[in-house]
Amino acid sequence: MTSSYQQQLDAKVERISAQFAEFNPPSLEAFNSPEQNFRMRAEFRIWHTEDDMFYAMFERDADDQKKVIEIKDFPIADQSINALMPVLLDELKAQKILSNRLFEVHFLATLKGEMLVSLVYRCPLNAEWETAAKALSNKLNIKIYGRSRGQRVILTDDYVVEELSVFGRSYQYKQIESSFTQPNAKVCQKMLEWACNAAQHSNKDLLELYCGNGNFTLPLSTRFNRVLATELAKSSVYAAKWNIEKNAIDNIQVARLSAEEFTQAYNGEREFRRLEEAGIDMSSYDFDTVFVDPPRAGIDDETLKLLQRFERIIYISCNPDTLHDNLKTLLQSHKIVQFAMFDQFPYTHHVESGVLLEKI
């Protein structure tokens, strides 16, 4: 590693270790990122001048005014994105129907080589645009997806299929353009392996809350008898079910419930037709572990009480502050036995953290 990357990684380790020191956790295990070409997503504004246009981002100057920065390459993005950027821009410039009122360009790449480009416009998209976009899609061998206000034009697909390797086994994931996916695929693979190691092997069942597209669900299913995963977003539930079928995994059920709704159902406070329609008999499960990867806001109080009833909790967090706050409750019943940090976002203050908690 270069000294500059090592220094920023060391600073994160020091910051997170200090923040959680009051809980006396084990030594923090840090998982580094590639120093460049680690992001599988990139989004740019398109800045139009009188006779040209270019990829743009913005920064604040000394007077707190927005300054336009032309982006010719983007070293933190995957190599395939960097290779495509100038080629795509030249093609867009060459056709007025594709460049007119183009507002943003979004790239979504995969480790296996697929590419989805979303072109976002400030004008309606017509048949002429669709014909030109299809021709460009074929010429560059990429997927193109058009968007404008109230309009979505899907030429082939609005997703890519990523392939991640966990302990030598490959998993395929449908990643939908508008849905969340981990942007740093190589660090994501490290997170999946850490979670599987934390889970060890159990002859009981796993409950997963906030499962998204099944990112962790698929490899974790190899460590348990059965898995019940919950997620509220319809697009993510759809992707998770597609991923389960695509990977021929037969011990996972997915319930479209929020964490709060699952807590109510588990406590017998409410009945949900969605469970019945999905053929899920909650009483048939014998859980010993719960896995959570909540949004930045963390976990609500009632769900925290639910987690305290499980023997083991595996908690992945994208926000150290809410993890720290949630641990004040969880450590009343559990202790930290593993503590990890994943550098998903090099050169920013953001980190992903992981803790394995076991009942006292």
TrEMBL record:
GO biological process: tRNA methylation
InterPro entries noted in UniProt: MeTrfase_TrmA_AS (IPR030390), MeTrfase_TrmA_CS (IPR030391), SAM-dependent_MTases_sf (IPR029063), TrmA_MeTrfase (IPR011869), U5_MeTrfase_fam (IPR010280)
Active-site annotation: 318, 352
Binding site for S-adenosyl-L-methionine: 182, 210, 215, 231, 293
Metal-binding among keywords: no
One Gene Ontology CC term in the entry: cytosol
GO molecular function: rRNA binding; tRNA (uracil(54)-C5)-methyltransferase activity, S-adenosyl methionine-dependent; tRNA binding
SUPFAM superfamilies: S-adenosyl-L-methionine-dependent methyltransferases
Listed Pfam families: tRNA_U5-meth_tr
EC assignment: 2.1.1.35
UniProt cross-references to PROSITE patterns, sorted A to Z: SAM_MT_RNA_M5U, TRMA_1, TRMA_2
Reaction catalysis annotation: uridine(54) in tRNA + S-adenosyl-L-methionine = 5-methyluridine(54) in tRNA + S-adenosyl-L-homocysteine + H(+); uridine(341) in tmRNA + S-adenosyl-L-methionine = 5-methyluridine(341) in tmRNA + S-adenosyl-L-homocysteine + H(+)
Keywords linked to the UniProt accession: Methyltransferase, S-adenosyl-L-methionine, Transferase, tRNA processing
Family: Belongs to the class I-like SAM-binding methyltransferase superfamily. RNA M5U methyltransferase family. TrmA subfamily.
Biological role stated in the UniProt entry: Dual-specificity methyltransferase that catalyzes the formation of 5-methyluridine at position 54 (m5U54) in all tRNAs, and that of position 341 (m5U341) in tmRNA (transfer-mRNA).
Protein name: tRNA/tmRNA (uracil-C(5))-methyltransferase
Gene: trmA
